[in-house]
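Quick start: what a row looks like.
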Amino acid sequence: MDFLVIGSSIAFIAYLLATVAILSRLFHPQGPNLKLALVLAFIAITTHLSNEVQLLFNQEVINFSLPNVISLVSLFITITISIVALRSKVNLLLPVIYGFAGIWQLVMIFIPKVESMPLVAEKVILVSHISLALIAYCILIIATLYAFQVAYINMKLKNKNLTAVVHLPPLMQVEKQLFTILTVGTITLFASQLMGLFFLDGFFAKENIHKTVLSLIALFIYTVILFGHFKQGWRGHKVLVLTITASAILTLSYFGSRFVQEFLLS
């Protein structure tokens, strides 16, 4: 059997068990067994990382096909949130990221291998631009998850359902973390767009114009959110809706056309 299939199967099972370990005790008086969940997640992440190295790097090319990129993004987010979980209560986020990462590992077993999007490793600027853009995307998706957590805690506090939030961090702490992450992600996205503008010849080419325009729209919305929060005191539902909107536009920019090219038109 293919080693990648074995690795994906192990990662899927470990991610699934970690998800169950959190969800089965999410509202338990003593909270979920975080140590067990993180041990299972470590097994899943290690296997996932090993698979990702084999998928991305092949001889003299870097294979940035859509399935590989989604797998890489889920890995980055999973590692980040798992590290955060060692110090902060992010019990609501863990089953979401572990669940998605596990499902995608399962999907990777059945998706035909796509070799149509290789990037020559010597193209340092292009690889750097794409890497920076992916990092920005991961950070901003994490911010979106935090926005959901803020909205959930806020809703439960308004309904005076303290049992539902007893194992979650204080609202103000999560909100502060949300806008810190959002600021870092927005700056990183701005840097990736700036790099593309000054160093990539085809940044505004016909085949890339929709990606560029959508990315700039998303960047504008993220900037508006930050301005609205720090200058006008925006928070709560308005921030959640705008963050989801910006993240959806950015997702469409990064993955929409590639999905059509690699799967619908292949």
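That is the whole record. Strands lie at 57-58, 61-63, 118-120. The chain is about 75% helix and 5% strand.
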